[in-house]
Specification:
globular, alpha+beta, 244 residues
Amino acid sequence: MNNGIRCGLMVAIAVLFSHFSFSQIAVADLSLDGDLSVWYYDTYALDNSPLGEGVYYVIASQSFREHQFYQSAVWTEGEITISGESFEGIRLLYNIYQDLLLVENRGRYRASYLTLEPNQRKISEFVIHGAEFVNIQESSVPSRGRGFYHKIYQGESLGFYAKRSKKSVTGSRSIQYEPENVRYVRAYGEYVKYVGKKTFYTLFPERKKEIKQFVKSKLKTLSRKDEQGAVLVLEYCERFVTDL
């Protein structure tokens, strides 16, 4: 390694050690005969990408059963697109209580792991627990406002989105977080709150009889919580939009 680069990296490492003095970084594992640049970027890689353009986030104490996160309070690998760049295999947590996507800056050493809150407005989409979320910031937004929405379905003309969130309920001994799901059909450039099959009748009043027959033959009934059933009806209704 070039001596100038080696010296520069040593200074950077010294600054990092002093900055993160509260973390017990395994200095003994660092061989000065090895490639310091590899060690540096392997340990603090996200600091040099769009993912690192944010602030550090302190996760409040929570239980595995009662927490603020989507699906699980355990870090899980996912995908994220931010500032036009896509990253895979990134460990994520999605706080649906605060509508914040968090990233784990996972270095080689466990003591150097830090929770980052990237610039949320620069995140265009991410995938976590197999669900794709998109950042809706357009002028026509759902009634819940701008933010991340679960993209359940997006066809040629119609879409189906859900706002995944939680509300806190203070009990006698602890705080509980109860899930809240508000769903929307995107049609004609607008987001219409989904309340069940009546939503389709409102969007396509002249096709109400046909939609009723389809629901009866394929689903028998359709509740507002039946997301897969709603997708099936949306796929059927695509023909009504293209016929206009």
